[in-house]
Structure formats: C-alpha cells, structure tokens
Amino acid sequence: MGICTLAAAFAMVFYSSSLEELSLSAALKEALSSNPEITAARRAHEAAAARIPQAAALKDPLLELEYNRINADRDLSGHPMTMYALSQEVPFPTKIYYRAKIAARLAKIAYENYRSKEREIINRVKTAYAELALVHRSVEIAVENKRIIDQFSGIATSRYGAGMGTQADALKAQVELAKIENELVMLEQRRITAQARLDILLNRDPSRELGAPRIDDAITRAPSLQELFSRARENNPELKAYRYGIERGDAAFKLSLNEFMPDLMLRFEQMVQRGNLQGGMWAGSLGVTIPLWFLQKQVFGAKEMKAELESLKAEYSGKENMVLFDIRDAYARAEANKKIADSYRASFIPQAEQTVNAALKGYESGKGDFLALLDSQRMLTEFKLDRYKAAIEFATALADLEKAVGVDLNIQKR
User: Fold this and answer.
1) In sequence order, which residues have a C-beta less than 8 Å from that of residue 194 and are 6 or more positions away?
2) Which residues of the chain carry a pLDDT beneath 70?
3) Which of 22, 120, 351, 404 has the greatest count of CB atoms below 10 A from its CB?
4) Angle at the Cα of 115 from the Cα atoms of 113 and 118, rounded to 5 degrees
C-alpha cells in the first residue's frame, strides 16, 4: 500500500509539472473574461444604464377618435362628425431632470457593484491560486524529505549490518517514511479541492487538471497604512457605490419636493366631416394637476425621502469604518507574515540546516543519536514549509488589501 501511495504522489508531481504552467496573470485574465458572476454584474450595469433615457422620456401620447351622430342634426347637412384628438401628459420639467438623475446614479451604483464583483473575484482567484501553490510546494517538500529519509534509512541499515548500529534505527526510519506517505495522501485530497475551486472561478470544468502554480516567495513591502486609507476612500467600489447612493437619495428627496409642482396636460382636437378636414373647426386645451391631497401624499413622500437620505449617509459612515478595519487587519497580517518569513529565511532555516549536517556527521561517526537526526530533519522540513506558508499568507493579505483599497497596489519587490 505504501509503494502505491508514493507512486501516486510521484505521478501527481510529474504529471502536474508536465502540464502548461498557469501563471497568476493568465488566471486573472481568464477569470475576468469568463467568470459568470462578473458577467452577471456587467449585464446588470448595462440594464441600469439602459434605464436612463427611459426615465427622461415622456409618456406616450394618446390618440383618440370620436364618431358623433348625436349632434349631426346641428349641421345643415345632417352628416355625422368625426373628431380626432391628440393629448400629451408633460410632467413639470424639474421632475424629468431629477428622475433622469436618479436613473443615472443607479447606473453608476450598478457599475461600482460590477467593479466590486471584479475585485472580489480577483481576490478569490489569488487566494485559490496561492492555496494550490502551497499544496504543490508542500508535496515537493514532502518528496524531498522522503528522499533524504531514504538516505538516512540506508545509512542506518548499513551501520546495523556492520554491527555499529541498532535495528531500531532502521525501523524508526521506516516509521518516518510511513508518516510521509500519509501526508502525501492528505495533500492529494487538498490538491484536488484547491484545483476544483480555482477551475470554478475560471469557469472551467472542475475536473480539469492544472499545471503547478508558482508564488514568488520573495517578500515585498506594502505602502504605508495612511496611504492605503487614502486610496481606499478614493477607489473602493463599495464606498463609491454608497456615495452614488447618497447622490441618488438627494435627487429622490428633491424630486419629492417637486411633486408639489403641477403636471401639464396638452390636448388638440380636429373635426373631420364627410372625409374633409374642417380647418376652422379645431380646439386646444391645457390642463394642470392640482396636488390637492398634499398633506397625505407629497408631505409624507418628502419625509420618507429625507429619512432615506439620512439612512444612506449613516450606512456610508459604517461601511467606511468597516473598509478601514479590513485594511488595518490585512496590513497587520501582511506585516506579521513578512517578519516571520524573514526570520525563517535569515535565521531559522540556515540554523536548522547546520543542525542536520552536524547530526548526520555525528551519527555517521557513531557519536550521535539517530532519533536526534530524524528530529533535526523533521524540524528543517517544517521550517521550509512554514516559511512558504508565511509567504503565501503574505500574498493573501496583499490580495485582501487590494480588495479593500479597490485597485492593484503594484508593489515593488525589495
């Protein structure tokens, strides 16, 4: 069973490496063009934009035809009269303006929601890509560790055969190899899940195999916290959507005040008798609506819109505080993982490598303990993996920062 497990792990590593590597930039480009959630948000914006000219348009005119025989005897000819009438309802001009403004702000809100969905998908793709890269790197470290433990096992077996070591040392090596086999089984399950998650974000078949992704583990430095706050207030699409929402609320409040103004009704009538247009027999009229029930309708409509506007302002303040918290949290995680990765690279890993070399020399010379050698190798392996985990967590924190700020940070490496 152990041989089959290791064979499967090796096959997975070599098969993944033989596939075309999916770069992060290519994955992001594919997601932005193919992800169905982004497509839905883009179509919602297009639909909202199409409502703007509709909001500024007048109602359809009404064309009427009247056939009158009741009053036919008033004409000496006794022929019935045919009357054509055309009427048009015209709202007070400022009402049209504010309705169009409301529709325009709703379209801008839909656009910012579309941008927000893009930033969300970008964040999810980067996170899924980093998770898959971590799994592949974990497999590589486990396979490398297996190779080294195999070497230790060979040394222990040779020493036992020469009467210089114990059988227990060889058995300990086999136990360590069995642990690596179990670890590879779990890593394969994690790889399948992480790969399927990324495939779905790219709108691919979840069973489609991907090449091994790569995350540069060189730690970069993020901009200052205050600079990030400033960028977020300017670029975060959710905050911009709330600001447009406040503008829409303000336009809706002003529209409610203009509901006190009368609407107009224009009407033109033309008589036709015996198929002949009677040029002198026409009529025109102008009507206005009277907001007679303003104490029940328009007054409370204005109160409603005023309360809604104040509610939007309060929601914006709360949303801004939440965005700033997200930035502070992601920034703290980025700084912490940067320090951790730097410590592993500069101190822990070199020291662990020296410990392994010293333990190996001591064991080969008969002055060291095999268990100490295994422990030192296990510690080195954990340090390598922890360093890469810190680099992945740093990349994820940067992705969260970009989502909160609303734009790519374009951070330069040290």
Assistant:
1) 128, 131, 132, 135
2) 1-20, 69-79, 165, 216-222, 273-280, 410-414
3) 404
4) 110
> How many Å apart are CA 239 and CA 109, to the nearest integer?
10
Task: Round to whole Å and give the CA distance between 164 and 76.
Answer: 140
Task: Count other C-beta atoms under 10 Å from residue 158's C-beta.
Answer: 13
Provide the 3-class DSSP secondary structure of residue 78. Answer: coil
Choose among 186, 140, 210: nearest CA to 381: 140
Q: Please state, in angstroms and rounded to a whole number, the distance separating the CA atoms of residues 111 and 48.
A: 9
Secondary structure of residue 282 in the 3-state scheme = strand
- Residue-wise pLDDT for 75-105, tens only, equals 555 567 788 899 999 999 999 999 999 999 9
Location of structure tokens 């190996």 = 360
Length of the chain: 414
**How far is the C-alpha of 359 from the C-alpha of 30, rounded, in Å?**
49
Q: Which residues of 65-76 are buried (b: 16+ CB within 10 A; e: fewer)?
A: eeeeeeeeeeee
For residue 246, count CB atoms less than 10 angstroms from its CB and return exposed for 0-12, middle for 13-18, buried for 19 or more.
Answer: middle
Sign of the CA dihedral with 302 first, then 303, 309, and 312 last: negative
What domains lie within the chain, and their CATH numbers? 2-405 (1.20.1600.10)
Amino acid, single-letter form, for residue 178: A
Nearest by Cα to 364 from 134, 155, 127? 155
Please report, as a single letter, which amino acid is at residue 164.
Answer: M
Cβ density class 82-117: b for 16+ within 10 Å, e for less = bbebeeebebbeebbbbbbbbbbbbbbbbbbbbbbb
Cα 100 to Cα 58: distance, rounded to the nearest angstrom: 11
Beta bridge partners of 90: 264
Cβ pair 377, 313 in contact under 8 A? no
**What's the burial of 285, exposed, middle or buried (CB within 10 Å: 0-12/13-18/19+)?**
exposed
